[in-house]
Amino acid sequence: LIATGQEKIQKDFDPLIPGFKYVEFNNISAIKEAINENTCAILVEPIQGEGGVNIPTDDYLQGLRVLCDEHHLLLMLDEVQTGIARTGRMFAYQHYGIVPDVITLAKGLGGVLPIGAMLVSAEKADLLPPGSHASTFGATPLVCSAAIAVIDYIMEHNICALVEQMGRYFVERLQELSLKYPSLIHGVRGKGLMIGMALKINGATVVNECLTNGLLINSTAGDVLRFVPPLIITREEIDEACEILDRVLLHS
Q1: What share of residues in the chain are helix, strand, coil (percent, to 5)?
Q2: What is the rounded distance in angstroms from the CA atom of residue 84 to the CA atom of residue 161?
Q3: Is 1 domain-assigned?
Q4: 234 CB contacts (<8 Å, ≥6 apart)?
Q5: Domain check: are 106 and 56 in the same one?
Q6: Which of 31, 106, 132, 157 could hold 80 in an S-S bridge, CB 3.0 to 4.6 Å?
Q7: Torsions phi, psi of 100, nearest 5?
Q8: How far apart are the first and last CA of the chain?
Q9: Domain count, the chain
């Protein structure tokens, strides 16, 4: 709750725990200025989801890793949205040639079942001895079995490669729409099957019209359509989605 940095989520839960600082995404200089003698960690999404599917520059996470090493800080990555093959790698940090100290997982880890996990590197594992960080409802056999099945399926069927392939195709189709409707669309960005289309109009209206026509998407940051389809989506389903979006944009 404190880490999110979103006032709309925090506003009814005062007083909040002090000690967190929030800085601009993809801005190494801002991070450097925020670090002081009390800083213990940097927590960041490798790709912002709720913030509008914002993709960092290639050197951003690498720069954070260097900063954390220099100042003896933990690098903690929120991979709740990006993890488990969503971006074409098992974890999004693998695109950037770094290894974090901590990552958090949920969403895709259990398919449709509720599960979350926090993974800690071997070098930092002694910070959390057994029993020191637990959950009353954690590690239930049902959801853990589901998570194992999800991971096994992804590995055995090379889903990461499929996600990369379908992600490229989806972006290409969306870029065609961007060229067709330059007065409505700023552009398209994404990695794998985590894709955003930045609009010049309100996203909620487009989302509602798409739903009426059989396409389920959402908007973030007010004007960014977010596409996070099933990892096993087909070309035919992508084509159908883009045809629906095309019809909606035509009348927007």
Answers
A1: 40, 15, 45
A2: 13
A3: no
A4: 166
A5: yes
A6: 106
A7: -80, 170
A8: 36
A9: 2
Same-domain pairing of 48 and 146 = yes
Residue for token pair 């070098």? 123
Do 92 and 130 have their domain in common? yes
Spatial separation of the C-alpha atoms in residues 222 and 203, rounded to whole Å: 6
Task: Encode pLDDT of 124-183 as tens digits.
Answer: 999 888 878 777 877 789 999 999 999 999 999 999 999 999 999 999 999 999 999 999
Q: What is the pTM of this model?
A: 0.93
> Does residue 2 lie in a domain region?
no
Helical axes 141-156 vs 159-180, angle rounded to 10°: 80
Residue 207 lies in a domain: yes
Which contacts of 31-40 are long-range, i.e. CB under 8 A and separated by 24 or more positions? Answer: 31/63, 31/64, 31/67, 32/67, 35/67, 35/71, 35/73, 39/71, 39/73, 40/73, 40/74
Q: Under the phi-then-psi rule, with left for phi > 0, alpha for psi from -120 to 50, and beta for the rest, what region is 61?
A: alpha
